[in-house]
Protein backbone atom coordinates (compact mmCIF):
# COMPACT_ATOMS: atom_id res chain seq x y z
CA UNK A 1 0.00 0.00 0.00
CA UNK A 2 0.98 3.61 -0.45
CA UNK A 3 3.13 5.55 2.02
CA UNK A 4 2.95 9.28 2.71
CA UNK A 5 6.37 10.62 3.63
CA UNK A 6 6.65 14.04 5.29
CA UNK A 7 10.21 15.33 5.13
CA UNK A 8 10.97 17.73 8.02
CA UNK A 9 7.34 18.76 8.66
CA UNK A 10 7.13 22.06 10.53
CA UNK A 11 3.50 22.83 11.40
CA UNK A 12 1.68 20.54 13.87
CA UNK A 13 -1.87 21.07 12.55
CA UNK A 14 -0.77 20.15 9.02
CA UNK A 15 0.79 16.91 10.22
CA UNK A 16 -2.28 16.21 12.36
CA UNK A 17 -4.53 16.67 9.33
CA UNK A 18 -2.31 14.38 7.25
CA UNK A 19 -2.40 11.80 10.05
CA UNK A 20 -6.21 11.86 10.03
CA UNK A 21 -6.16 11.47 6.23
CA UNK A 22 -3.80 8.49 6.54
CA UNK A 23 -6.03 6.89 9.20
CA UNK A 24 -9.06 7.28 6.95
CA UNK A 25 -7.33 5.76 3.93
CA UNK A 26 -5.21 3.07 5.58
CA UNK A 27 -2.06 4.78 4.35
CA UNK A 28 1.17 4.47 6.32
CA UNK A 29 2.57 7.83 7.48
CA UNK A 30 6.34 8.23 7.53
CA UNK A 31 7.81 11.25 9.35
CA UNK A 32 11.41 12.20 8.58
CA UNK A 33 13.25 14.08 11.34
CA UNK A 34 13.87 16.69 12.40
CA UNK A 35 10.26 17.52 13.13
CA UNK A 36 9.29 21.13 13.86
CA UNK A 37 7.28 19.98 16.89
CA UNK A 38 6.95 17.21 19.45
CA UNK A 39 4.61 14.31 18.72
CA UNK A 40 3.01 15.22 22.05
CA UNK A 41 2.18 18.73 20.76
CA UNK A 42 -1.41 19.68 21.65
CA UNK A 43 -1.99 21.25 18.22
CA UNK A 44 -0.86 18.06 16.51
CA UNK A 45 -3.15 15.96 18.69
CA UNK A 46 -6.07 18.35 18.22
CA UNK A 47 -5.76 18.27 14.41
CA UNK A 48 -5.62 14.46 14.43
CA UNK A 49 -8.53 14.35 16.89
CA UNK A 50 -9.12 10.90 18.30
CA UNK A 51 -7.85 9.16 15.16
CA UNK A 52 -4.24 8.75 16.32
CA UNK A 53 -4.76 5.13 17.45
CA UNK A 54 -5.73 4.34 13.85
CA UNK A 55 -2.67 5.96 12.27
CA UNK A 56 0.11 3.65 11.14
CA UNK A 57 2.98 6.07 11.75
CA UNK A 58 6.75 5.73 11.90
CA UNK A 59 9.39 8.35 12.67
CA UNK A 60 12.79 8.11 10.98
CA UNK A 61 16.04 9.92 11.82
CA UNK A 62 16.73 10.55 8.11
CA UNK A 63 15.37 9.91 4.64
CA UNK A 64 18.26 7.46 4.12
CA UNK A 65 17.14 5.41 7.13
CA UNK A 66 13.58 5.22 5.79
CA UNK A 67 14.76 4.28 2.29
CA UNK A 68 17.02 1.53 3.64
CA UNK A 69 14.34 -0.04 5.83
CA UNK A 70 10.63 0.58 5.30
CA UNK A 71 11.12 2.29 1.94
CA UNK A 72 13.26 -0.45 0.41
CA UNK A 73 11.81 -1.67 -2.88
CA UNK A 74 9.37 1.23 -3.08
CA UNK A 75 9.28 3.94 -5.76
CA UNK A 76 9.93 7.36 -4.26
CA UNK A 77 7.69 9.99 -5.88
CA UNK A 78 8.47 13.57 -4.92
CA UNK A 79 6.07 16.46 -5.13
CA UNK A 80 6.77 20.00 -6.18
CA UNK A 81 4.74 23.13 -6.76
CA UNK A 82 6.27 23.75 -10.18
CA UNK A 83 8.19 20.70 -11.44
CA UNK A 84 7.23 17.21 -12.48
CA UNK A 85 4.42 15.49 -14.30
CA UNK A 86 0.92 16.81 -13.58
CA UNK A 87 -0.69 14.63 -10.91
CA UNK A 88 -3.74 13.88 -13.08
CA UNK A 89 -1.50 12.32 -15.78
CA UNK A 90 0.81 10.35 -13.50
CA UNK A 91 0.59 6.55 -13.33
CA UNK A 92 0.78 5.66 -9.63
CA UNK A 93 1.72 2.28 -8.18
CA UNK A 94 0.62 0.66 -4.89
CA UNK A 95 4.33 0.58 -3.92
CA UNK A 96 4.77 4.35 -4.17
CA UNK A 97 6.10 6.48 -1.34
CA UNK A 98 4.70 9.98 -1.83
CA UNK A 99 7.30 12.47 -0.59
CA UNK A 100 6.32 15.97 0.59
CA UNK A 101 8.66 18.73 1.78
CA UNK A 102 8.52 21.18 4.67
CA UNK A 103 5.92 23.93 4.53
CA UNK A 104 8.34 26.86 4.46
CA UNK A 105 10.59 25.79 1.60
CA UNK A 106 9.52 22.51 -0.03
CA UNK A 107 11.93 19.74 -0.83
CA UNK A 108 15.59 20.71 -1.24
CA UNK A 109 17.19 19.83 -4.60
CA UNK A 110 19.40 17.14 -3.05
CA UNK A 111 16.33 15.42 -1.58
CA UNK A 112 14.43 15.75 -4.87
CA UNK A 113 17.35 13.89 -6.48
CA UNK A 114 16.55 10.80 -4.39
CA UNK A 115 13.16 10.48 -6.06
CA UNK A 116 12.66 8.26 -9.08
CA UNK A 117 9.68 10.30 -10.28
CA UNK A 118 8.25 13.78 -9.67
CA UNK A 119 4.66 15.04 -9.70
CA UNK A 120 3.08 18.44 -9.33
CA UNK A 121 -0.39 19.76 -8.64
CA UNK A 122 -1.27 22.28 -11.34
CA UNK A 123 -2.12 25.66 -9.82
CA UNK A 124 -2.45 29.15 -11.22
CA UNK A 125 0.59 31.40 -11.01
CA UNK A 126 -1.07 33.75 -8.52
CA UNK A 127 -0.03 31.48 -5.60
CA UNK A 128 3.31 29.90 -4.65
CA UNK A 129 1.86 26.60 -3.51
CA UNK A 130 -1.01 24.86 -1.76
CA UNK A 131 -1.12 24.03 1.95
CA UNK A 132 0.77 20.83 2.80
CA UNK A 133 -2.22 18.87 4.10
CA UNK A 134 -4.30 19.96 1.09
CA UNK A 135 -1.52 18.83 -1.25
CA UNK A 136 -1.21 15.47 0.47
CA UNK A 137 -4.97 14.97 0.16
CA UNK A 138 -4.99 15.78 -3.55
CA UNK A 139 -2.02 13.57 -4.41
CA UNK A 140 -3.03 10.70 -2.14
CA UNK A 141 -6.58 10.51 -3.47
CA UNK A 142 -5.29 10.76 -7.06
CA UNK A 143 -2.99 7.83 -6.30
CA UNK A 144 -5.71 5.81 -4.53
CA UNK A 145 -8.05 6.40 -7.47
CA UNK A 146 -5.39 5.46 -10.00
CA UNK A 147 -4.53 2.16 -8.31
CA UNK A 148 -8.20 1.26 -7.75
CA UNK A 149 -7.97 1.26 -3.96
CA UNK A 150 -11.12 3.33 -3.42
CA UNK A 151 -13.35 0.68 -4.99
CA UNK A 152 -12.91 -1.55 -1.91
CA UNK A 153 -14.62 0.94 0.45
- How many structural domains in the coordinates? 1
Which fold does the CATH topology refer to?
A: Alpha/beta knot
Strand order of the largest sheet: 3-2-1-6-4-7-5
CATH class: Alpha Beta
Gross CATH architecture: 3-Layer(aba) Sandwich
Supply the number of helical segments. 5
Based on secondary structure, the structural category is alpha/beta
Largest sheet: 7 strands, parallel
CATH superfamily: SPOUT methyltransferase, trefoil knot domain
What is the count of β-strands?
7
Computed over alpha carbons, the radius of gyration is: 14 Å
| Strand residue content | 15-25%
Question: Secondary structure elements and their pairing?
Answer:
Blueprint: E1 3-7, H1 12-25, E2 28-32, H2 42-48, E3 57-60, H3 63-68, E4 75-80, E5 85-86, E6 96-100, H4 109-112, E7 117-120, H5 132-146
Parallel strand pairs: 1-2, 1-6, 2-3, 4-6, 4-7, 5-7
Helix pairs in contact: 1-2, 1-5
Features of the shown structure:
20% strand, Alpha/beta knot, 153 residues, single chain, alpha/beta
Structure notes:
The chain contains five helices and seven strands, in the order βαβαβαβββαβα. By secondary structure, the chain is α/β, with parallel strands linked by helices. It has one domain: SPOUT methyltransferase, trefoil knot domain (Alpha/beta knot), CATH 3.40.1280. Strands 3-2-1-6-4-7-5 form a seven-stranded parallel beta sheet. α2 links the parallel β2 and β3. The chain is globular, with a radius of gyration of 14 Å. The model has no long low-confidence stretch (mean pLDDT 92).
Amino acid sequence: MLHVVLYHPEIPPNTGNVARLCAGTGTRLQLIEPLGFSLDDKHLKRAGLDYWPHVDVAVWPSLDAYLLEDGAGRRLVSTSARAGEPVQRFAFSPRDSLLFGPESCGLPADVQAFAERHVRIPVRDCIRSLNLSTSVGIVLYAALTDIGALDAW
